[in-house]
Amino acid sequence: MRILLTNDDGIYAPGLRALRMELKKLGTVTVVAPATEQSAAGHSVTLLVPLLVNEVYEDDGQSLIGWAVEGRPADCVKLALLELLEEPPDLIVSGMNAGSNAGINVIYSGTVAAAVEGAFYHHTAIACSLEYDKKIYDFPKGANYARQVIEQILANKPAPGSLYNVNVPVLERGPIRGIKVMPQNVSTYREKFDRRVNPRGRTYFWMGLDFHCPSPNPDTDVTALAEQFITVTPLQFDMTDHARMRAMQEWNWGEMK
Amino acid sequence: MRILLTNDDGIYAPGLRALRMELKKLGTVTVVAPATEQSAAGHSVTLLVPLLVNEVYEDDGQSLIGWAVEGRPADCVKLALLELLEEPPDLIVSGMNAGSNAGINVIYSGTVAAAVEGAFYHHTAIACSLEYDKKIYDFPKGANYARQVIEQILANKPAPGSLYNVNVPVLERGPIRGIKVMPQNVSTYREKFDRRVNPRGRTYFWMGLDFHCPSPNPDTDVTALAEQFITVTPLQFDMTDHARMRAMQEWNWGEMK
Description:
The first copy, chain A, is an alpha/beta fold and about 260 residues long. Chain A has one domain (about 1-185, about 215-250): Stationary-phase Survival Protein Sure Homolog, Chain: A, CATH 3.40.1210.10. In chain A, about 25% of the residues lie in helices and about 25% in strands. In chain A, helix 1 (about 15-25) packs across helix 5 (about 140-155) and helix 2 runs parallel beside helix 4 (about 110-120). Chain A is globular, with a radius of gyration of 20 Å. The termini of chain A are far apart. Chains A and B meet through strand 3, helix 2, helix 3, helix 4 and helix 5 of A and strand 3, helix 2, helix 3, helix 4 and helix 5 of B.
């Protein structure tokens, strides 16, 4: 099996290294990942400037790990599929992200965007993230769980273009209670900016970090993660609100003047 | 009515200026928009660096237009709602974008992401884009149509958090045939990279520009735009594939080792 691995924390991130080691148990892994951290890149792509690409080798200097791209996670997947890979991959994996990508954070996530991009191209794609607390991450253990979930997904023979979002809860909080297939929570996080003044007296703002979702909907990825379950959410990328659309089609639309 | 106006082409973009003139017919408009072009920014937000903000005035130097933010479209909406606006807006408008945001381009679009961000905060939000051909844009005319569509949406008293994506077709191709409420097309565009060599002999890649969607699904935003209709698509931001989720909940998930 040929696996394309990418992420949004950058090609040298420990989460990617750990997941690469696990995925090598399943097949041949080629990495095409951002050269630098791209957290919260969302589904941005690079149009205004060119993409510089560097080959990255194992410490022996001989074995190609893949390519570092000075761009966004979605750029990496496009470039891998259209230019860099000699053969199409059987599976695209993105991660393992440092931090969960659940609830509306799915929309901000570069990790998930890379997987969505793979699904655009009709590849099975799985985003993997590890929730953390107090900046402690056991990526080898988290990636081991992620690989087991990936194996179970593949055992069910997903249709091409199937897209999944996998989150592993904080491992230091206690044992994993199992896997739950859950929808994305859609309630809003509590956010705030730090308002600061620079040395020249000018006000600036810095986004605070608060992953606390004050009132998640029950039975969602956010609640199941908090209950120490690994969550799996199948995703799609039709953002149409179909119920509301049918109502709007009945509106009495006026003439354009 | 208090209207927050943003975009992804930057606060000095002609599309925003034209839309601002039209929206002033409906209420008080405050602009919070990126200082520079942020095309294809997707739903990225700025975490790693602070957000610098500058007040922007009319040519008289007295009347505040709003704020230019050195960040992404979604940053602008967050910052407007949490820090800059004295009172919450009654409506958030994003645009008018130079180029359509239909089909899967909705996912890449900073224009749409800004509106989605507004909907996260339970505001009615409308993204407006003008399709173009040969780099000709009649923004005053396009913004006039967009304002008429916005008025019709508001006349139907949308629930808070309602989110809409409005596209105006190429105006030079012929008269507008009307408004169609259509779902987002989800088939893939044909994309390619230019592979080039820099003056030092290093290969780099540059995303080509091809808005041709080879096989759009019938009765979608993409097909209706091509037939010279203004399209309106109600959007939502639950990316869960609910049908596939129900099937996956029946899977026989194995124990984690």
